């Protein structure tokens, strides 16, 4: 597994998530949790772990392209980094990773009414 600097530890990730979950929003938090569970899976290859560590490191870091404290835009760069990592490692994300992430997000935010996963396409609208 890639070396993780102490400032980007798992405890700093949980601290940021618990402090800013409501501000960051469910979609971002749920995708962060998907990456965390994928990272912890021994089946995840080294290159994917490096991608995940980089994205989570960006999320945890107080130095952002768009500062997190800006209303409405503060977490958009974090969401972009996390979404890019999810797309890059998608083949290694298992249903169990998504299920665990959704369970924790349900715990923090309440259940999704339709139980869809974050980043799921919107239902098609037929006339």
How would the blueprint of this fold be written?
Blueprint: H1 10-24, H2 26-40, H3 46-60, H4 76-88, H5 95-109
Helix pairs in contact: 1-2, 2-3, 2-4, 2-5, 3-4
Protein model, in words:
Helix content is 57%, strand content 0%. With 127 residues, it is an all-alpha fold. It has one domain (7-109). The termini are far apart. The model has no long low-confidence stretch (mean pLDDT 77).
Quick rundown:
The chain is mostly helical and 127 residues long. It contains five helices and no strands.
Mean pLDDT: 77
Q: Sketch the major β-sheet.
A: none
β-strand percent reads under 5%
**What is the string of helix and strand elements?**
HHHHH
What would the principal axes of the Cα set say about the shape? globular
Q: What is the first-to-last residue Cα distance?
A: 50 Å
Helix content: 55-70%
Total count of helical runs of at least 4 residues: 5
| Class based on secondary structure composition and strand pairing | mainly alpha
Query: Got a strand count?
Result: 0
Using the CA coordinates, give the radius of gyration: 15 Å
């Amino acid at each position: 597994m890639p070396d993780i600097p102490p400032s980007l530890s798992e405890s700093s990730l949980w601290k940021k998530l618990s402090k800013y979950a409501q501000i960051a929003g469910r979609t971002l938090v749920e995708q962060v949790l998907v990456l965390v569970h994928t990272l912890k899976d021994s089946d995840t290859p080294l290159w994917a772990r490096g991608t995940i560590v980089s994205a989570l490191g960006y999320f945890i870091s107080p130095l952002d392209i768009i500062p997190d404290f800006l209303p409405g835009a503060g977490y958009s760069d974090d969401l972009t980094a996390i979404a890019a990592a999810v797309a890059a490692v998608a083949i290694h994300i298992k249903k169990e990773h998504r299920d665990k992430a959704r369970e924790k997000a349900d715990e923090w935010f309440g259940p999704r009414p339709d139980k869809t996963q974050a980043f799921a396409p919107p239902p098609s609208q037929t006339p």
